[in-house]
């Protein structure tokens, strides 16, 4: 193993649902400045990896953030470093957009009887609102938002939370093209600051190729290939994993626009 | 709202009917006559005519009061099956139990091969009655709602088991005992009584008008403080205190733990000023004396009469 | 940007307190027996300051101070507790139709109470002591059973698992209740009366117990209002922003069952209060639990006090079981809410 300056290190991660193994002995690490794209066909176990790292499900193996075992971290401390964007955004009640965004500061809220205050809170919330363009919607109920607006609301919550590592589960799922572009541009912008990294599950290989620095190709719970985006996105590997001629298909698709 | 309330009362009435054996509906005149050829012809309290060639020797009684009447007539050897809630006298529990009420099991009854089944109107459906009749079993429906009808029930059962003379003697005995209480009406006049069916911790329930308790009270000149409501109902504790009864009759059962029903009433906060509590004029009827249309109505009435004439 | 106060401020407390106090006064003055306002005030004065009770008002003093007042206080506290438990449950499970009873804790508590009645479990000197202790014990036992089962099936304790197990557990307990009734013999009568729910015979001791439970367990729930907000947006969301999901769930669920256990032992099963009042309160103050939970307590107290008042005076001199009133009003309101929320979508 090389010198460990990894932010996130996943060691021999295995997830089982009953007798079915969805993630099978997966290990990888992410360093600052990287954007790791987890790609692969449906049922490859991509989202399960995100769920495991964010401690949403039981798993075997270990996940370390800067050397600390995430399973043993206090949830509040974990949330200050790790920001997670889940796929499901169904909200039960009519909270306002502002209320949901502010919840991102939960991990920094002063404990009872404590003298400290969340000093940076207001500034970070305002910056997150501005960055995502949610200003006009602040007093609106989240139940009235479109899918794209809802996604941006949770992205704003994530920015307000101010983590150093983002775990995104299909961040552009069901979004219109313009929001896909906006979302990826926003995250790309965010990543530019020092000491930050992103891990995301994406379906769209073109988006993965356009924004990722690294990629992990998965199939049936196992890692097929891992490395820089160029290494992984080579025709033979993709074609074998997706069981079709990916390059030719993509080429045909895009040639229509020329 | 009303509909809701009434359906609730209906449900309750169903439950209570199991205990007190009384139910709604006006029973027409019933009667018995012993026809020629030793055949017995009986008209039950639902105006159904039942004919028997000879006195029944195998009887199933589903209602507690009918069981009591059979025992009181000395015809206990005819009883081959009893309903779940037949509990008096104690020996009756040794008789084979059959499911009664809404769980009535025809197979169980038919297996006992009775000649006659005694039942209460509320408990069984017409289909069940017809099925029993088709199996060659005579069904007699007793449905006494007042003392007069109780006499009829006794005479009907007497005729069925061939104990007419005993039945007549029993009815005469009851009549004369009640007549004596009625003759001393002055003892109770101007005094009030409160009947408690369910104790405070489960919500106060009382017996209003058209109940045996009310009828017995009126007979000895007492005024039922809840004579203005009908049947068994839940009443307000405030109203009991306000109406300040001179006597309290509780039919709460004592199961051998904790305070007796009388002690419990005496201990109630806020009741100390009630006349009956001050005078300790509280009667506990443990054995459904005044809630079943049977021969023990007299016993219950006598205990109440003794209490009001004591002083 | 103006920062909106998201807690329950002094103004809100003042408004709700005044309304609740007004309802409380009305419910104390009006009842099965009419008492003149002057006698009410005089009786209250005597009760607070002591002193000789004049013979003229002894009767009304008795009714008011020894019978009506403890009942109204109990009703208010039970209403507040049920409503708070329901509100917390709806937030935790992110389901506006959830109620404390969704967990199966109410039916578990009823089972305990029915066993206490059927087998004559009593505590000397305390009229309803046996029933209360058994109801609370069974509420806790039910919770332990439900949660350990849920953890076995699904370690993350997802909402659907809890609701499913709650439903199954309710069926299980109701079959056990019927079994106990079969063995109860002549005590069926007591059980039948008890299950209809009655706040008759409430004592100051009952009120004190309920108040204590509300102080401890209600307090615990109120301290978790912020976490409940995150749960109400989504359990994933709560975990993502840093809520200790398991611990908070545990604390809130235990508090809910304790509150329900005490309520059931005092007043039997009173349906719909925990379902409807938090829902309607949410329509007024919004979904933020820092406001919603305290407001629900006040509105739950008011709703149950008014229901009880209706039960006491509607068919004078009869006393209706309070469950009849709450279920009647509650189910109508429930249909209205359900219909309007469907139409809105």
Description:
The complex is a heterotrimer of chains A (258), B (311) and C (345). Chain A is of the alpha/beta class and 258 residues long. Chain A is 36% helix and 24% strand. Chain A contains ten helices and ten strands. Chain A starts with 7 loop residues before the first strand and ends with a helix. By secondary structure, chain B is α/β, with parallel strands linked by helices. In chain B, the strands form three sheets. In chain B, strands 9, 10, 11, 12, 13 and 14 form a six-stranded mixed sheet that branches. In chain B, helix 5 (147-160) packs antiparallel against helix 6 (164-183). The N and C termini of chain B lie far apart (47 Å). Chain C is mainly alpha-helical and 345 residues long. Chain C contains 14 helices and no strands. The radius of gyration of chain C is 21 Å and the shape is globular. Chains in contact: A-C, B-C. The A-C interface holds A 54-58, 74-80, 83-86, 88-96, 98-100, 103-104, 106-107, 109, 112, 122, 126, 138, 142, 154, 157, 161 and C 1, 3-4, 6, 94-96, 155-156, 223, 226-227, 229-230, 232-234, 236-237, 239-245, 282, 286-288.
